[in-house]
Design a protein that fits this description.
alpha/beta; Rossmann fold; 3 domains; 5-stranded parallel sheet; 4-stranded mixed sheet; 18 helices; 9% strand; elongated
């Protein structure tokens, strides 16, 4: 029941969205094609009756007619199979496109992708949830849903044939024998219940093992990705041995769980194979005495055997599909866990931020660390007018960047309020982010690159000593590896000139620059963006002259130094 609730939690948004009408049409077409397949199977069952009767009667003309009917039935079977596959795949693509897009929007909404990392490690590998699990959820859900529907239709379609055929079977009880109405139906039902129950009992550990396998494989892939992203640092540390140890540990964890999974699957597979294969001969042995006594011809025996197989297969569908059901349950558990984690993240916690053009106003700002509860800042307030600036200084590890995070809405362990032009605010981090794409796309990020302004871009590059990059704007490569950290930081300042923000937060954005280059960057900011409010995090005394207010945070001697305006702060 919990799994079905999880399924509906995941599926309901799509089936109630604007895509529901075309999706329902595709689902209806898929169902009709599957019903067509059931109809062909029913006709094929009666074909068995007439064809094998013709063989037993040595009726060559009926045999030839049966051959033509067989070709027509196979043509119909092929047509319905291809059509069912076509409509099912179109529905899969439509559902997958909507589901992935909707999940990505929820993940990106209110910066949840970052808040999930900052506020707890409960969600493992969210990229896998989006890239792999949604695909598996949709494909398996459609396959299982259509499979159950087809099994039920087949069951009731062939029950009548099997029920009537049961009247031909008499048990050797009494002088005339005992005929039990629907005997073959009851045998198929009991056999299927026993098989289904056994499969569920033997495979009860499969959902948990599948869940663990997906997690451990994702952890292993993540460690490989980290090697690629931090290749230079690892090489400088000569950390190959330590990395190999990490790879080996995570690989071994995945392989050990995989072997446990294989051992359980072996048991279920062996049981299911024996169970399904033995079912094909049961009706033969039950009907054999009456057949050899001449009660009915070969065609009737063949028809009854085929009908028993269809009824039994429909009843035993869950046995055959149990490995997929186990995988489906594990996927639903992972996706519902991911969505519940997203829904639990509230953007209302932390600093209350409101839009206010031009000035920056921070009121009663309190910051603390979630683990230790240590207070970083208490009751801090400040007003900064256009063109003014604030420099925040503190010892390394004190939590200076946390102040920028809180004011920008990225730190929930805070209280107070902040008002500024939220639509024209920009943060420069110590390590600039370089997205995928060519250099033009990177420099214009997060805006869409504008080719018509290449001259403006080239002029900005020249100002920051990056003129040699102007001829490489169309080049697409891993620029975060091609450029030094100092060049990357200057590229970030080029972005500032292109965006012209009203509020600019600089989180140690010049840490890799020499004093001359740092001075150049700040001087250009002051000249090109005289009305922009600057809030800087830094250590160097050389930054003092570029800021109208300075805030010193020191646990031993909290103080505030302000050349032009006094600030008070306690910690």
């Amino acid at each position: 029941m919990k799994t079905l609730q999880g399924f509906w939690q995941l599926a309901r948004p799509f089936w109630t969205s604007s895509e529901k009408i075309p999706a329902l049409m595709l689902l209806l077409a898929t169902i009709l094609m599957n019903l067509g397949l059931v109809g062909v199977n029913i006709l094929n069952n009666f074909w068995n009756l007439h064809f094998y009767n013709a063989l037993q009667a040595l009726d060559y003309d009926a045999f030839l007619i049966g051959g033509i009917e067989f070709i027509l039935l196979q043509a119909a079977l092929t047509g319905f199979t291809v059509a069912a596959f076509h409509f099912q795949q179109k529905l899969t693509i439509k559902w997958m496109r909507w589901e992935i897009t909707n999940t990505l929007q929820n993940w990106l909404k209110n910066r949840r992708y970052l808040l999930m990392q900052l506020n707890g490690p409960e969600t493992d590998n969210p990229d896998q949830r989006v890239a792999d699990d949604i695909d598996m959820f949709i494909v398996i859900s459609l396959k299982l849903g259509l499979g159950v529907m087809t099994a039920l239709v087949s069951l009731f379609s062939f029950l009548n044939i099997l029920w009537q055929a049961s009247s031909l079977v008499s048990l050797p009880i009494g002088a005339e024998g005992l005929v039990i109405p629907g005997l073959l139906v009851w045998i198929a039902l009991l056999y299927s219940i026993a098989g289904t129950g056994g499969a569920f009992w033997l495979g009860r550990a499969l959902p948990r093992l599948n869940f663990l396998q997906q997690r451990r494989e994702a952890d292993f892939r993540f460690s490989l990705m980290r090697l690629r992203e931090h290749a230079e640092s690892i090489a400088q540390y000569r950390g190959e041995k330590a990395e190999m140890q990490t790879f080996t540990t995570r690989l071994e964890a995945a392989l050990q769980n995989f072997w446990q999974l294989v051992k359980k699957q072996k048991i279920v597979l062996g049981y299911s194979t024996f169970y399904m294969r033995t079912a094909t001969v049961i009706p033969m042995f039950i009907m054999a005495p009456q057949f050899f006594a001449g009660v009915f011809p070969l065609g009737r025996l063949t028809q009854i055997s085929a009908a028993f197989g269809e009824v039994h297969e429909a009843m035993a569908y869950l046995v055959k599909a149990f490995p997929q059901i186990a995988e489906w349950k594990a996927v639903i558990d992972r996706l519902t866990g991911f969505q519940n984690r997203l829904n639990a993240i509230s953007s209302d916690n932390g600093v209350k931020i409101r839009h206010q053009p031009r000035s920056l106003a921070i009121s009663k700002l309190n910051l603390w660390l979630p683990d230790s509860g240590k207070t970083i800042l208490r009751d801090f307030s400040v007003n900064i007018a256009p063109g003014e600036s604030l420099l925040v200084r503190a010892p390394s590890g004190f939590g200076k960047s946390t102040m920028v995070r809180a004011v920008f809405g990225l730190w929930q362990h805070a209280s107070g309020s902040a008002a500024y032009d939220t639509e024209n605010a920009l943060v420069l981090a110590q390590k600039p982010y370089f997205p995928l794409g060519n250099l033009r796309d990177i420099l214009w990020y997060p805006q869409i690159a504008n080719r018509t302004k290449d001259a403006t871009l080239a002029h900005a590059l020249q100002k920051f000593g990056l003129g040699h990059l102007a001829s490489r704007l169309d080049q697409e490569t891993d620029w975060s590896k091609k450029l030094s950290i100092g060049e990357q930081q200057r590229c970030a300042f080029v972005r500032v000139l292109l965006h012209k923000p009203q509020i600019l937060f600089l989180d140690e954005s010049t840490s890799a620059l020499d004093e001359k280059s740092e001075t150049l960057c700040y001087r250009l900011l002051k000249e090109e963006l005289p009305e922009t409010i600057l809030v800087s995090i830094g250590h160097r005394p050389s930054l003092d002259r570029f800021h109208s207010q300075i805030l010193d945070l020191d646990t031993s001697s909290p103080s505030a130094i302000a050349p032009q305006q006094a600030l008070t702060v306690s910690t």
